[in-house]
Write a structure and sequence with these properties.
The complex is a heterodimer of chains A (497) and B (352). Chain A is of the alpha+beta class and 497 residues long. Chain A folds into four domains: 99 residues, Uridine Diphospho-n-acetylenolpyruvylglucosamine Reductase, domain 2 (2-Layer Sandwich); 118 residues, Uridine Diphospho-n-acetylenolpyruvylglucosamine Reductase, domain 3, CATH 3.30.465; 110 residues, 2-Layer Sandwich (Alpha-Beta Plaits); 151 residues, Alpha-Beta Plaits (2-Layer Sandwich), CATH 3.30.70. Chain A is built from 18 helices and 18 strands. In chain A, helix 14 packs antiparallel against helix 15. With 352 residues, chain B is α+β, with helices and mostly antiparallel strands. Chain B has two domains: 165 residues, 2-Layer Sandwich (Uridine Diphospho-n-acetylenolpyruvylglucosamine Reductase, domain 3); 135 residues. Chain B is globular. Classes of the chains: A alpha+beta (497), B alpha+beta (352).
């Protein structure tokens, strides 16, 4: 998973002492870390299994410093990897030995909240949750809420097009942005989008959102805020069979209800979460659904009745409505703590992020179970059921080299299964370094070439975050030698699972 | 094979254009031909390449070929009590799904529901290299690779030929009501901002000649409660909004050139000669004016917005000029994705 110049492209030689001297000369007020012990905290992001010590770390505090640094990096042909809070799960901020790590943590100011327009202007290092906290006195909040929202930065959210449990109703990061300022690799400052609902020209705001730091560096962000819903109520439904739970999800949508959140957990995830936070989950259930309705109280009550009827018809063995906000928080606490809960029952876990059409859920869960047996590793399933985003958690021990390799192979196989049923290898975590090989499964060579052309328009020398997001054709050729492309294999035998 | 699948013919035409370097002027039903600069090129007609390829109401996703009549798509969704939330204009008729995405125009529900691109999940695109590629897909969340599908939305066919598109759809609201109140524009806008903040189920707000017209949508309970809260007179639901969406209100046939001003929602009202109609709760104004284009643009830029000219006279750029640094990257992107310059050259800006 580390950068491989043979497959990911030559990086050229860089002289650390010279680059350090140039930075100190040309951007004298820029904070630079260069001692080995100072660099160590930055050697990985949330994908902690893979580590590289960066050549240099810079911590700019102003846009002018970012511009000067990018100009210098362009002239000297030094790769630059941008990093927010370092919570990303796909290794998108994994450093390079021959590269500068651009840490945006000092851009931590909420520039302003405009309650009339319901917008917030923030710097990229501001934490996701801090925006909603600052907006709360105005009765407003920022909707996208990735599980890591207490720590993750809004700049990273833009780079990954982060989601969360409320995406189906409130959208992803891309749906909740008005504009971003970016610094290009040449050091130019551009505003993409506007304070208006649309902007002239190509929709570069949409293109940059989720581009994983490959096209430019985000330095300023204006987000949309929403009025806090007057009321939110949650149902917890138990099922003795995962398939029935999956069908219930489709039935809720078919009933014309768009829940604020619709989450599914399987038995292993339920037990892990229950043992950890005592959310009140039924330990024996094969699956549970959490369905939250929010909005105006009369509408919420009406929809709660509707969903309750759907769940009964779908064969739920038990349906509970949180009696008060305290119990509602407790129901959610189990789901939000699912990852660390699984972390308690296994030395390590590996979180996948595939998306699928919801109708394929039973088939995919059966497929994952078969793969889990084949690779002899347990898998707990947590699922943004409403929008088809799965988070299978593979349990393994990283100290056991064989288990690590099996976990990687099992993860890859799960992603390929998602692609085979018409889904995607990543719904919200990004490709980063982690899923670089699986990109060759989801896209053919022409599509990869097209992506490289998009990149070349903004970063012709490939200096921004090399080795991430889009694989080289060399890498795909190497990977393809072991795999057969899209649909033809590797899952002609799905029914056998 | 589906007789309405004409992808091969489109691919052939693009390949020939790429081989000879002769530009293509892409069109569907031509319903939005009044928007944009004239294109000199061989006509490429998408309308034979039509049909809904896949629609599963439980998935909230529909996939249709570019030439599919927009009206057909809207009717098909309505049969399942679903809709395109951004309320795209049909104008005179003949509008296609491909044109809807390529122009990115949205109707009165836009500020509350989102834009065309917000609901684009995937596209099939025929590229400048003469290849049929697929980006995104039929799933709600997909961050693999660059978001080419959303880039295509609103690009006026200048980056490639959209041959098929997958869209997220939503259930139609169970209840709907349209109200009219007599209010001055300033007060109307303040009311809209306040009601929005209070979480009232507004989904359209238009002001013209002292009349504020509002639409409420949701479940019966919230719509009725909001009606009581707001007051006003109930008016014919539906027809008004369709006429606003398709520019069929009397305002649009008045004298002067038609301009669309996109402005910050809580910013200044236009102070320009002519008549204006406020839509999108104040985020979009329609202006009928004989003012100089430069004066209109200068005012719009100063207000933090921008202006588009419909049916622009010769010598008037329909689209707002871009800052030089931004234009540089537009050109770079065009050069990379359409190196021969065969897709709608000049439709958006002279050198794109």
């Amino acid at each position: 998973m580390l950068y491989d110049e043979a497959l990911d492209g030559r990086l050229g030689s860089v002289d650390k002492a010279r680059i350090l001297r140039l930075i100190q000369e040309r951007v004298p007020d820029l904070q630079v870390l260069h001692h080995r012990e100072d660099l160590r905290p930055y050697e990985c992001d949330g994908l902690a299994a893979y580590r590289t010590t960066p050549m240099l770390v810079v911590l700019p505090a102003t846009v002018a410093q970012v511009q000067a640094l990018m100009k210098l990096a362009s002239q000297e042909r030094v790769p630059v990897v941008a990093r927010g809070a370092g919570t990303g799960l796909s290794g998108g901020a994994m450093p390079l030995e021959k590269g500068i790590l651009l840490v945006m943590a000092r851009f931590d100011r909420i520039v302003g909240i405009d309650p009339r327009a319901a917008t917030a202007r923030v710097q990229p290092g501001v934490r996701n949750l801090a925006i909603s906290q600052a907006a709360a006195p105005h009765g407003l909040y920022y909707a996208p809420d990735p599980s890591s929202q207490i720590a993750c930065s809004i700049g990273g959210n833009v780079a990954e097009n982060a989601g969360g449990v409320h995406c189906l109703k409130y959208g992803l990061t891309v749906h909740n942005l008005l504009s971003v300022d970016i610094v290009t690799v040449q050091g130019k400052l551009l505003t993409l989008g506007a304070d208006t609902l649309d902007a002239p020209g190509f929709d570069l705001l949409a293109l940059f959102t989720g581009s994983e730091g490959m096209l430019g560096v985000v330095v300023d962000i204006t987000v949309k805020l929403l009025p806090l819903p007057a009321c939110a109520k949650v149902l917890l439904a138990s099922f003795d069979n995962v398939e029935k739970a999956g069908q219930a999800v489709a039935d809720i949508i078919a009933a014309g209800v768009i829940p604020g959140g619709l989450e599914m957990m399987d038995n292993l995830a339920i037990r892990a979460a229950e043992d950890f936070v005592h959310a009140g989950y039924p330990r024996e259930a094969a699956a549970i659904l959490l369905c939250e309705l929010d909005g105006v109280e009369t509408d919420v009550d009406e929809d709660i009745q509707r969903v309750r009827a759907v769940l009964e018809n779908a064969g739920a063995t038990d349906i509970r409505q949180a009696r008060d906000d305290h119990e509602r928080q407790r129901f959610w606490a189990g789901r939000k703590a699912a990852f660390p809960a699984v972390g308690r029952i296994s030395p390590d876990y590996y979180c996948m992020d595939g998306t699928i059409p919801k109708r394929e859920l039973p088939k995919v869960l059966a497929g994952i179970e078969a793969l889990s047996k084949r690779y002899d590793l347990r898998v707990a399933n947590v699922f943004h059921a409403g929008d088809g985003n799965m988070h299978p958690l593979i349990l393994f021990d990283a100290n056991d080299q064989d288990q690590l390799q099996r976990a990687e192979a099992l993860g890859g196989a799960i992603l390929e299964l998602c692609v085979a049923v018409g889904g995607s290898i990543t719904g919200e975590h990004g490709v980063g370094r982690e899923k670089i090989n699986q990109m060759c499964v989801q896209f053919n060579n022409q599509e990869i070439i097209f992506f490289h052309a998009v990149k070349a328009a903004f970063d012709p020398n490939g200096l921004l975050n090399p080795g991430k997001n889009i694989p080289t054709l060399n890498r795909c050729a190497e990977f393809g030698a072991m795999h057969i492309h899209r649909g033809e294999l590797p899952f002609p035998d799905l029914e056998r699972f | 094979m589906d007789a309405r699948d004409h992808n091969e013919a489109l691919l052939d035409q693009v390949r020939q254009a790429a081989a000879t370097g002769r530009p293509l002027a892409i069109h569907g039903g031509g319903s939005k031909s009044i928007l944009g600069r004239p294109v000199q090129g061989e006509p490429l007609d998408t309308t034979n390449h039509r049909g809904i390829v896949h629609y599963d109401p439980c998935e909230l996703v529909v996939t249709a070929r570019a030439g599919t009549p927009l009206a057909e798509l809207i009717d098909t969704l309505a049969e399942q009590d679903q809709m395109l939330p951004f309320e795209p204009p049909l104008f005179g008729g003949g509008a296609t799904v491909g044109g809807m995405v390529a122009t990115g125009l949205a109707g009165p529900r836009r500020p509350w529901a989102g834009s065309v691109r917000d609901f684009v999940l995937g596209t099939r695109v025929i590229t400048g290299a003469g290849q049929a590629l697929r980006f995104g897909g039929e799933v709600m969340k997909n961050v693999a690779g660059y978001d080419v599908s959303r880039l295509m939305a609103g690009s006026f066919g200048c980056l490639g030929l959209i041959s098929e598109v997958s869209l997220k759809v939503l259930p139609r609201p169970r209840a709907s009501a349209t109200l009219r109140l007599t209010l001055a524009r300033d007060s109307a806008r303040e009311c809209i901002l306040r009601w929005r903040h209070q979480g009232l189920p507004l989904t359209a707000a238009c002001h013209h000649e002292q009349q504020l017209t509002l639409r409420l949508e949701g479940n019966r309970g919230s719509v009725d409660a909001a009606r009581r809260h707001i007051g006003g007179e109930p008016v014919d639901n539906g027809e008004f909004w369709a006429r606003l969406r398709d520019h069929r209100l009397p305002f649009f046939t008045g004298p002067g050139t038609l301009w669309r001003l996109s402005l910050p929602i809580a910013g200044d009202h236009p102070a320009l000669p002519g008549t204006s109609l406020m839509d999108w709760g104040g985020a979009q104004y329609w202006l009928k004016s004989n003012s100089d284009a430069a004066a209109i643009r200068e005012w719009a830029s100063g207000a933090g917005g921008w202006a588009t000219c419909f049916a622009a006279a010769a010598g008037v750029e329909p689209f707002h000029p871009l800052p030089a640094a931004l234009m540089h990257y537009h050109r770079a992107l065009k050069a990379q994705l359409d190196p021969q310059g065969i897709f709608n050259p000049g439709r958006l800006y002279p050198d794109l």
